[in-house]
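Handover notes (outgoing to incoming on-call)

Open items:
1. TTC12 protein: sequence verified, structure written out, both below. Nothing else pending on this one.
2. Nothing else urgent.
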Amino acid sequence: PPAMLRDEDTEADFQRFLRRVDEVASLLQGLNSSDSAVREEAIAETEKRLREEGASREEEEEEEEGRTTVNRTLISTSVRAFPSQIKAGHSSGAFLAALEKDAKERAQRRKRNEQLANALKEKGNEAFREGDFALAIQRYTEGLEKLRDKQELYTNRAQAYLKLHEYEKAISDCEWALKCNKNCLKAYFLMGKAHLALQHFSESRQCYEKMLQIDPQKENLFKGCVKEANLEEKRVRDEERAQREVQAGNAAALSIQELLQRINSPGQDLLCCTVGIRLLAEAVDSCTGQTLFRTNNGFSILGNEPVRGAFCAERKSPAEVELCVSLLLLWQAACAGNEENQRLLLGQAEVSAQLPELLSSGPQEIQRETLALISLCSESQSSRRLLARQGLSRWLQILLAFVKNRDKEADGAMSIPSADSFLVGTHTLVLLPGALGLIFPSFPVFQGRLRPESRAGTALALGTLGNLSAEAAARAQLARSRDCWLACLEECSAEDTQGVLAALGLMLNLLLEHNDTIQDLAVPISGRCLALLSHQDGRIVTVTTGVLSRALPASPSAVEEVVKGGVVKKMLKFLKVAGQLTSSYAIKILSICTKSSRQAQEELVKWDKRFQVLLKLLESEDEQMVGNAAFCLSQCLLLPGAATSLLDSSVVQLLLRQAGGDAQRTSVQQNSAIALGRLCKAEPRHIPQLRKLNGFSILSSAMKHVPSS
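TTC12 protein structure tokens:
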């Protein structure tokens, strides 16, 4: 492609071009003015500029023969002179006609150039799709020679430069695109990527913040980009810190390098590899340890023939089972809370192929550790998506089968055996740096961290499903599965607290969906929740309340059953003593119940004397709670005498404040206005207070936006 001018040259050229455009536009405006004085002044200024332009053009033509032209690839500064036949003294009518003719010629030329530029852009796009990024850049550059203020050509070329790792050039093109269109989202996005690749983390985040300022609807994209930048910055800082530890001679850091070298050295048998891997898992006990494991190619351990053979063997010997379990424990230690390590692990073809097999048909101890590893990885969005690429449906089927087929034998298998069961032969002792001990003796190091407490496999599987259901595709698939719902309901009947919490968490996610399965099972789900509201564990009570708040809208029958079961009284109790989250769920449940159940309305009036609980909620800073409280109140005001009980209270002031605009949400304003209207209609003695607060105009304005019922 043609050579680029220096940035300062092109910047100056571009600014001169923009000034000339502004000046011509100003002259045209003056020539078309109805004010004769302004028009005459514009004509005089135009004639002056034409004379100057003509003189300048003659000088350039004289010098043209003796100099070499520069091929400028970006912004042209030449402005074509008006027709030479326009001379001073011509009538303004003739001048305007010539000016109009020149403008038309310019428009026609621009149209032709735009067609050529678009054609070159399409050729560049085709080359880009085929992976020929150098050719794409050439085509985009040729397009810019035809039309130098075409933003898309700059951003497309910047994207191609990114593919070729020419980040500075990508940034320059993005800057030019922003000169053409200051609100170009793609330019800020690509510039953020380029800065990130150059490890300019602050500049990268600034670009993403600009995107959000231009279009607040891009919040999800913004969050994803900023998270990527933060993770990359963390990776770089972690690696710098780990390198300093090695340079300082830190014993623990050096031991990781030594262990990896010994495991990968030729001639190691299964037992040697197994013991080394177990010691390595113990050494990788910090962020620095995880980083050193990664930077010393720890994830290439499957390149070791004994390790790969044991991991991939279809029928495993006891020694191979032990090595496989040790490897899974190592990966758990290396990947815990470390998304970069998770990415490297799950990106290996052999790992992604074997993990589903190990979980579905491996020995019980291998199933246990595979499940633990998958559960750990499913906690981060990026790793969930990597798992989904490996076959989301398959993972869900395996996990559901694991839950569905659980029995006493399976639960017993989930108890983690002690390291004492690890059979050790007689081998040569080898000392390691960092006082880790001997490789081949009785492994006292294993008796601590690597023997976690036993936990039920079902709870872990349900928790993993709950993590995976944070992704829309997995959530939709699981929400349609009757087996999944029945397994959750069964687990909620168990005594294992972790299992109950896992099942409730999964149901809370799945209830974001709406389908026939949920509608069919809403009554048993609500019934099970009603029983759990009396649980002694506050965590269970909170999540149960959330599940109930999402299940009830699916079925009027479910509402009827829980109202009969005393849910109104329980929710009022929670609103008096529970925390913010439980209270937000509780008032939502009351709003759902009072919407369709007169019994719920009557019980709320009965148990909330003078609506003390609801009035307190109307003062909340949480608008969602305020809106639900106003809705409940408006429903209860349909009952005779309810409005009278609120005389001499602050209800008019509270509702008027929300209806009048304190609330940001329109729904909150509407609910408050409806409640206020019903209050004054049911009990006219509230009207003087409304009049005193100048509330009629506010109420009238708010009611205009309330749908008629």
